[in-house]
Amino acid sequence: MSGRVLEAGLHLLDRQLIDSNGRLAGKVDDLELEVPSGGGPPVLTAILAGPGALSRRIGGRLGAWLEAVANRLRGGDDRRPARVSFGVVKGIGSAVDLSVPRVDLETDRLEAWTRDHLIGHLPGAGHAPE
Amino acid sequence: MRRLFSVALGILTAIGGFVDIGDIVANSETGARFGMSLAWVVVVGVIGICLFAEMAGRVATVSGRAVFDLVRERLGARMALVNLVASFFITFLTLAAEIGGVALAIELATSVNYLLWVPIVAFLVWLVVWRVKFDVMENAFGLLGLALVVAAVALWRLGPDWGGLLHGATHPVVPQGEGHPTWWFFGIALLGAAMTPYEVFFFSSGAVEEGWSRGDLITNRLNVYIGFPLGGLLSLALMAGATLFLEPRGIEPGHLSQVALPTLLVLGKLGLAVLLVGFFAATFGAALETGLSCGYSIAQYFGFQWGKFVRPADAPRFHLVVLLSILAGAGLVLTTVDPITVTEYSIVLSAAALPLTYFPILVVANDPDYMGDKVNSRFTNALGSIYLLLLLVVAVATIPLMILTKAGS
Amino acid sequence: MRLSDLFGADVVDEAGRSAGHVHDVRLVQDGPLVGTFGASLRVDGLLVGRRSIGARLGYGRGQMHGPLLVKLAVGWLLHDGRYVDWGRVRTVEEDRILISGSVEDLPVPGPSS
Question: In the CATH hierarchy, which top-level class contains the domain C3-104?
Answer without folding.
Answer: mainly beta
